[in-house]
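name: query_chain
kind: protein
chains: 1
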Amino acid sequence: MGAYTATVTVRLKAGVLDPEAETTRRALERLGFEPEALRSADRFEIDLEADSVDAAGEEAAEMAERLLANPTIHDYDVEVDPRQ
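structure:
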């Protein structure tokens, strides 16, 4: 067993309204910035024990599918790194 940290980033799918990002984009424009696009995302860092990097990634992906993301409206990415 190894120690890993899985980072799951959850964001809304293209075409789904993102009011948080729209509000932030407008605020940035008022501050003089000109972002082309802005999307909000949630990031979860999960420390876990697994037999391999692949096993840790599979477990984190299952967590995303079952709880962290709503597959109907969200996309997610999983990255896994060994924990020091």
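note: The chain has one domain: 2-82.
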